[in-house]
């Protein structure tokens, strides 16, 4: 903690200082504070060499080192969520998106107009469009293009909220981001992994994280 803060302060002071500045410390603050009190008991108890009233268990020691490891190397989203992302072009047909949902379980599609990134189309947006046109007679989904869906509806009804994150972003930061969005009612938020702040082409997207990946994130925290 001294190395990260460049402060020559006590363990307790550094713990308090980093509580609002470091996601790992924030998550494990209560546990670390107990360890701080345990450390003080061990250091300050004086009953002679033969008497030790406070002895940390191996479990406590292992947990402490586990938190230290996460503090020093919290893990990056690029380590866990890199992978091929299915994208759509405005010239693609609706049948392609539905087929990807059915066969590959894909439900979030970055949409491009040639080399321009338009947004993130989700199964929710597709369902909205299908329900809107449910009364149309003899609707042929093989003739409907993605641009037809986008151009006929408000983007907020079709696209979902996303954030672009660098692959070196810690999983703690992403976990906090999803948690804040859940509290704000954005239950279908998505993280796109890219080395670019602004996405220009499908190759810029290195991976995608959705709410369905939260169990994996929790496992790594």
From TrEMBL:
Which InterPro entries does this UniProt record tie to the protein?
Answer: CBS_dom_sf
Name under which the protein is recorded: CBS domain-containing protein
Its source organism is Atopococcus tabaci
**Organism taxonomic ancestry:** Bacteria, Bacillati, Bacillota, Bacilli, Lactobacillales
């Amino acid at each position: 903690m001294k190395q990260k803060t460049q402060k020559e302060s006590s363990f307790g002071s550094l713990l308090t200082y980093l509580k609002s500045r470091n996601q790992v410390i924030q998550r494990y603050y209560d546990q670390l504070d107990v360890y701080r009190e345990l450390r003080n008991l061990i250091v300050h108890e004086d009953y002679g060499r033969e008497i030790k009233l406070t002895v940390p268990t191996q479990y406590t020691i292992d947990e402490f080192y586990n938190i230290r490891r996460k503090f020093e190397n919290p893990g990056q989203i690029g380590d866990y969520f890199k992978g091929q992302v299915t994208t759509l072009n405005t010239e693609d047909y609706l049948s392609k998106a539905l087929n990807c949902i059915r066969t590959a379980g894909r439900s979030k599609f970055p949409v491009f107009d040639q080399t321009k990134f338009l947004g993130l189309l989700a199964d929710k947006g597709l369902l909205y469009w299908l329900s809107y046109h449910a009364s149309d007679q003899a609707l042929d989904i093989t003739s409907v293009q993605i641009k037809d869906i986008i151009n006929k509806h408000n983007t907020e009804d079709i696209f979902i909220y996303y954030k672009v994150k660098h692959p070196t972003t810690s999983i703690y930061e992403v976990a906090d981001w999803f948690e804040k969005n859940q509290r704000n009612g954005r239950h279908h938020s998505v993280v796109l992994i890219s080395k670019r702040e602004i996405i220009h082409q499908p190759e810029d997207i290195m991976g995608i994280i959705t709410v369905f990946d939260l169990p994996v994130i929790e496992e790594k925290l």
